[in-house]
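Go through this chain for my students:
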Amino acid sequence: MTVVERLLVVGSASVHTWRYLAGIAPHAKEVYLASNGEPPPELTPANLLGVCKLDFSLKAFGSAAKLAGFVDAVEPQLAHVHQANSVAWHAFRALKNRAIPSVLTAWGSDVLLLPKQNALMRRMVSANLAAASALTADSFHLAAQMRELAPNASSIDIVYFGIDALPVEPAPGRPKKVLSCRLHKSLYRIDKIIAAWAAIEAQPQFKDWQLTIAASGPETDALRAQAARLKLRRVDFAGFVSPQKLAELYAESRVFVSVPESDATSVSLLEAMGHGCLPLLSNLPANGEWVLDGVNGRIVPDIANLPSALAESLEWASCDAKLAEAAAINRRLVETRALNSANVARYAALYKKLLSRTA
């Protein structure tokens, strides 16, 4: 159902932006995009009628004026900005003094980490949050941090970046595999996973288990070197994979491990839970909104305990019945809270509410 005639989406070149664009497009008659990239053909909606290519870096002082010209040309009824970082800084300068309602969706590190860098970044993020007509977050913890940064900002809705559909129910007897698929950046601590895996390979009872490390990033070469230095024999670096291949990796894995230093609700966690993997996660507030330690996954209280937590997770997931019990809980959580269709509909309802105020 169409709720907005002309929608402007502002966001960085990311699969999350592209998936949101494709999901929300049926709720708009015309869609326009401002980004530092363009979506792939399979995620480009038919009603995407214009793209404004922008540099979102803080030094790109001309980006706001360029976007303002684009806004004046296409006359959007509503703007949806993704990330409260420099993307929002450029967007809200472009929207200033224009009677266009706006939604700002925080993603995680833009609110949880960026304001901690220095006072200037904190003021920028706070101002971005205060400038929006409505705010959304994908975890209660993230919403609380947003409110702390901008006490007088608009109301905050909890809406998730969900998954397209609940995967087929996993069959028993899956291979004994562990999957890591977060980016190879220091934030995600893939090196700690590799170090923990070295302890696993040293234990005979886990001789049938393998670790798959998907994705890539600036630390890929160092991570490969670490695995070679530790003489690991059962680690497969899969590299950057397509969504279809990633779904296959989830389906053939029993344990999903993700231990970043900071995170909101991770789409990869939702995908893993939907595929019936047992999650092994770092002790972050957003993770605690999905996983109760010992019930439907494991939470590592201290990264130093990752080797023992990984061993305990492998023992748990070795039993088909125990794995199926946790998988059933996780799949119900995803089905009730994290499917794209329901969450996109919530965004559309938010658009409708904002537009009704300006009618």
About this structure: The chain has a mean pLDDT of 97.
